[in-house]
Amino acid sequence: MDKLVIRGGNPLLGTVRISGAKNAALPCMAAALLTEEEVILENIPQVRDIETTRRLLSAMGAEVELGYGRAHHRTTIQARTLNAPQASYELVKTMRASTLVLGPLVARCGRAHVSLPGGCAIGARPIDLHIKGLERLGAKIATEHGYVEATATRLKGAEIVFDKITVTGTEDLVMAATLADGETVMQNCACEPEVADLADLLNKMGAKIEGAGTSIIRVKGVARLHGAKHRIIPDRIEAATFIIAGALTGGDINVTGCEPAHLTSLLQKLQEVGVKTTHASESIRVMGDTPHKAADVNTEEYPGFPTDMQAQYMALATQADGTSIVTENIFENRFMHALELVRMGANIKIEGRRAIVRGKTPLSAAAVLASDLRASASLVLAALVADGETIIDRVYHIDRGYEHIEEKLKGVGAEIRRIGEIFPKRRGANG
Ligand code: EPZ
Q: 255: exposed, middle or buried (C-beta count within 10 Å: 0-12, 13-18, 19+)?
């Protein structure tokens, strides 16, 4: 298994370019199932979850072309016929976002056989709200042998009020409602930019969606959707990770190809901590050479402080003067990285959903274990300021959501290398 080896101490200097958003690309790829015509997606990040989604859609009968060479951030999907509208446990267990095919398959094929995702390192993460919403749209649902079997002659528009804000739940049901008979009004929806990006693509495919990006979304169902071309938004979580890297290492980096408007809560928090940032239309400059002071953070749904930035922020808090209380309100078990940071010398105490981080404590290099995608990013950040060479194991987690992270970090002066099997070679289209 791959490991990353990082020698800490270098301030990061220079420019790093942000890739497309994994959490927008995944639902947009699933949306291609809603039409038999070609959907072209650009700015697709080269991360493992995209490869998993390619395999998922191909297994159903869709033609999926992941671009090569100069076109390597472009994907072409054509779901002419879907002879196997199902998502196997083998694939769903490696990427729970596979459940995003549930709504599109019922809407397009009248049937979906999708594995239940099972537990996850960061929390229970059930999909009951996806299922409840599909039932409101008239689908018949049976769950047996670990699979959801959903059927419907044609879905019917309905009123849906989410008991809880769910990002992929909102996306799944917006996709299902596009081909329903009549209008669907959804309330208490997720407002994440990735939801709005999906709706943008669907409207280009001929859907009638209003209000995406707000808590109330209206979808007027249509008989069919057509092909379209769409550029995926930048990855705000990847951008946040590099911004914090610049702040933490006392460096001066320019993070380009990002959307500053999607990072307001982070930039405000960094101001509180004392980190200097400036931004232009598609870039953010971080000058980390100022003392950092402690600041509490509460994770919330967008536009609040994202849970996907919590682990990275915790790494920064270990190097801030004073006590920061980090409260995780979205997932019940998202502090696995804290214990690894403690192994590196951080002073962190966990009390239920609160982590009490006392800084500033010098970090020393150690062998640490990544438990999930954002936890591994937090360990990489800590290693950049630790004394000595840190070895991070199980970095396959980081490959799921960060494109070539070691090359990007090397590009701004980090001492980082990967040991073990390199990222698996790309296979031919539909191979
Ligand atoms: C999305 O996951 C993201 N994944 C996650 O990013 C992100 O952490 C999360 O939203 C929150 O922002 C993708 O977009 C692919 P939720 P999702 O449904 O949609 C509960 C990363 O690091 N819930 O908004 O699965 C759930 O347990 C990943 O890139 C139900 O109870 O998250 C959680 O407590 C990790 N029933 C809360 O709602 C449901 O049916 C929010 O989860 C659905 C969710």
A: buried
DSSP 296: -
The alpha-carbon radius of gyration of the chain (Å, integer) is 21
Q: Pairing mode, if any, of strands 38-42 and 228-231? A: parallel
Mutate to test the pocket of ligand 1, among 141, 143, 164 (most ligand atoms within 8 A of CB): 164
How far from 257 is each of 19, 124, 239, 323, CA to CA, in Å?
7, 34, 9, 34
258-312 per-position pLDDT tens digit: 999 999 999 999 999 999 999 999 999 999 888 999 999 999 999 999 999 999 9
Pairing of strands 389-393, 367-369: parallel
CA distance 326 to 332: 13
For residue 360, with 0-12 CB atoms within 10 Å meaning exposed, 13-18 middle and 19 or more buried, which class applies? middle
Residue type, 81: T
Comparing CA positions, the residue from 411, 389, 409, 386 lying closest to residue 398 is: 409
Tell how far the Cα of 166 is from the centroid of ligand 1, in angstroms: 6
Cβ atoms of residues 46 and 403 within 8 Å: yes
Confidence at 420, pLDDT banded by 50, 70, 90: confident
Compute the distance between CA of residue 409 and CA of residue 245 in angstroms, rounded to an integer.
Answer: 9
Instruction: Retrieve residue 191's tokens.
Output: 């407002």
What is the 189 CA–ligand 1 centroid distance (Å)? Answer: 12
Mean pLDDT in residue range 163-179 = 98
| Cβ neighbours, 10 Å, residue 332 | 13
Selection from 262, 264, 269, 266 nearest residue 292 by Cα: 269
Q: With bands split at pLDDT 50, 70 and 90, how would you rate the model's confidence at 233?
A: very high
Ligand 1 atom nearest to 192, measured from its CA: 12
Q: Does residue 28 have an active-site annotation?
A: no
State how far the Cα of 94 lies from the Cα of 10, in Å rounded to an integer.
Answer: 35
Mean residue pLDDT of the chain comes to 95
Q: How far apart are CA 205 and CA 179, in angstroms?
A: 11
The amino acid at residue 164 is K
Please name the residue whose Cα sits nearest to atom 25 of ligand 1. 168
Asked if residue 376 lies in contact with residue 400, where contact means CB atoms within 8 angstroms, the answer is: no
Write out the two tokens for 101: 């095919």
The pLDDT-based confidence of 431 (bands split at 50, 70, 90) is: very low
Placement of tokens 């769950």 in the chain: 143
Atom of ligand 1 nearest to the CA of 49: 15
CB 201 within 8 A of CB 230: yes
pTM strictly above 0.70? yes
